[in-house]
Amino acid sequence: MAYADGFVIVVSKKKIAEYKAVARKAGKVWRDHGCLDYKECVGEDIKTSFGVPFPKLAKTKPNETVVFSWILYKSRKHRDAVNAKVMADPRMAKMMKEPMPFDMKRFSHGGFTVIVDA
Fold first, then answer.
1. Cα dihedral sign for 7, 18, 87, 81?
2. What's the whole-model pTM score?
3. DSSP state string for 31-96
4. What is the pLDDT of residues 57-73, one digit of tens each?
């Protein structure tokens, strides 16, 4: 059964380019270690009238937006193996020492079993 790590990240609109650069580097590391797919998506049409809009859910300020991301794996076991390699990769260690272009206190992450793949 496929497995995904999902992320919701609040990013200053001024730091989107900086975030994109970091995300590209991270995506390369995850791909090099075997993830099936890696996506980073910046909010565009997120002030919907149905449900709870992402800005309200994430409590964004007017100068912020939401990034929605996911990494896809074959299974949770595959995810755990890939993530162990990623965390041991010197490229990640270097990135983790640099300031992140977002507030880690407002970062959300979770692992999800894929139940529909249409």
1. positive
2. 0.91
3. HHTT-SEEEEEE-SS---SSS--HHHHHT--TTEEEEEEEEEESSHHHHHHHHHHHHH-HHHHHHH
4. 899 999 999 999 999 99
